Each structure stands twice: as structure tokens, then as C-alpha cells.
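URGENT: need a sanity check before tomorrow's submission.

F., can you look over the GuaB3 family IMP dehydrogenase-related protein record below? I want to be sure the sequence and structure line up before it goes out.
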Amino acid sequence: MSQEIEIGLGKKGRLAYSLDDVSIVPSRRTRDPQDVSTSWQVDAYEFDVPVIGAPMDSVTSPATAIAMGKMGALGVLDLEGLWTRYDDPQPLLDEIAQLPADKATERIQQIYAEPIKPELIVERLHEIRDAGVTVAGALSPQRTQDYYSTVLEAGVDLFVIRGTVVSAEHVSKDHEPLNLKKFIYDLDVPVIVGGAANYTAALHLMRTGAAGVLVGFGGGAVSANRNTIGVHAPMATAIADVAEARRDYMDESGGRYVQVIADGGMGDSGSFVKAFALGADAVMLGSPLARASEAPGKGMHWGAEARHQTLPRGFRTNVGTVGSLQEVMFGPSHNADGTTNFVGALRRAMATTGYIDLKSFQRCPVTVASSH
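C-alpha cells as predicted:
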């Protein structure tokens, strides 16, 4: 049962937990790490590792999307980012990385004021497709109706609709909002949509026909939603709630399984691993991949929220560089701070707790810190 706490007369709040609050509990069985499987599948697309590169300019470029794909992961290109606004975004990426902290947000707003060019959407997605990996691109709900036809014509395999909060029932007096259910039904490609951070919101997104639901508000290390608009959801509870919505939706739909993808707030391998134990099928990573030497941000990290023209809800931060993309994902690791060898950490945790695949690992018991 959910525990509610009285905040004051007439107002109660639900007790929720962050990933730092929970720990994984070993079982009576252990395995060898090489015997476990980290593969996952969304619709017809299979991947060796349950890692998705976040659609953030500091993380995923066409080149890093290709590199992730060849490593068995999935890179998602931000189709509203610098790669679709500028023929050569590299000088601007370099400039953002070198900006003083007090000037970064304002300059980012200026740089991203350049219009999106549909021909660049096509060019970037073709570049990824020509490399022979799965092609995925992301748009915000506000831009989806403007550019989705261009994205589909470019040959995208997976279409991601990603925003701070995405609902199945947006109401507007000014314009006709995107009808997610009709939109997804009419598409020939699987759609991943989010973020959602509770049971009800996720269940309604699943009912639209989405192949996957993003849990959380994205941004993670570079999100200021809690400070600017007061919106936040502790990820451990959010993942568990959405996983429960998935189970109930399976019963409701006669067996249709929707992928639960944790998005944001997993800056180290321990948090990454715990997301699966709480019910995630895959994890969308931002800051961990921004620390790779190949990352476009060159050790700096920022997201879509930082470029909002009137109310930026994110910022640029220095995450540093810890090694190559190969080392971040697969090691070898030369420290114990959880910044490298994410897949190795997942394999080790699954082996230590005795689970052979990700589906069974979702049943792993967890504990909550005694302070709660």
C-alpha cells in the first residue's frame, strides 16, 4: 500500500523513493556474469544491451548514434537540436563547451533560435541509416505535427516523442493538440513516448498504442524542473509505478507488452542497475554517455530544457570525460565511482542475485534505507 503523509490540514502527500533510497538484495542463487543475457527488444528491433543514448546534443550526434548502434545499443538523435539547425554544428558545440557558466544559458538560447531545416533532418537520419544501424529520432510533442512526415520519409525505424511531461490528453484553447492515439495508430513505425512519472499517466500513454513509455522527466543531471516549476518525481517509485501500469495494461489489452524505459537520474552504474530491478526494460542515459571522449559536448552536458526561449528549465554542467564510449559502456573500468562499465555492472548485479535475463531480474527484491 502507498503511504501518505499529512502535510497540513486538508493536504496529504504520497511518500516516494529515489534510486539512492533503495538497494538490491541477493537471493539464494548466484551465476557467472558471462551466463546472463542483457538483450532486449522493442517491437521488431533487438538490441544486445538495454542502453539508449538520450536525444541530447551533448550526448548523441549522428557519429555517436552510429557508434552506439554498432555496440548493440540505440542512439536517439534530437531532431530539434543543432544537427538539424546548422550544416556544421561543430563550431557551436565547441563554443557551448567553452562558455563561462554565467553566460551559458543565454548563449544557448541564442544558438538554438536558428530554425530547424527539414532537409537536415533527412540528411542526418540518412547518415545513420547508411551505417547499417537502427535509426531513431526524437521530437517534442509541440514539434511532432510539423516534422513527423519528414522524419518518416527519411526512413526512421523508431520514433520518439519526448518532453518534460507528455500526456495522452493535452487540452489547449489556442490550437488543436496532438491526438496521440490517432497519431500513433496511423504510423507504420513504433513510437516511444514520455515522460510519465506515475501509474495513471503511464497507463493512458500505453493505451495510445505506444511501443514504449519513458519514465521520468529526462534531463537528470541538467534538469532544473524542480527549482523552476516545482515538478519532480523520485525515480524508484516512478519506475515501479509505471511497471505496475504495464502489468495491468497487459491484462487489459490481452497480452500487449509495452516497454518501460527509465529516463534521467541514473548518473552512475549503481542507479542504472537498480532501474532494472524496479521494473525497467531499458534505460535512456544522458550524463554517463556525455562523459565519453567521443561525446559531442566534450565533457559538458546540457539538454533541451536549457534552450527554452522564455523559461529555461535546464542548464549546462561540466560532467568531465572519463574514457571512451566503449569504456563507459563495457569497460574496463579503472575506478570504483560507477562512471564506467555500465553493462559490466549490470551483468555482475544480475549474476550476484542469480537472474539470467532482464525480465527475471525485474523480480529482484529490493530494500529501502532504514532512515525511511
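My own read: The chain has a mean pLDDT of 92. The CA atoms of residues 168 and 205 lie 5 Å apart. If you see anything odd, call me.
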